[in-house]
Amino acid sequence: MHADLQRRLRAMGIKPGANVEVLRRGRPGGILHVASGMVEFMLRHEQATQIEVTPVARP
After folding, report:
1. Number of folded domains in the chain?
2. Among residues 17, 22, 25, which one has the least CA distance to residue 54?
3. What is the pLDDT of residues 18-35, one digit of tens each?
């Protein structure tokens, strides 16, 4: 992950192992609206591709 993106996410409290939920998707290759806990933020597609995720089933 790019160091600037990593610092930005850590500053918002998003650390490795955090649960992140996609709330909305923009057009293909566009922006993602995501949430982690009480924090909501937007990620560009280029940024999102730098993040490793593991899907989890919803209860």
Report:
1. 1
2. 17
3. 888 899 998 888 999 999
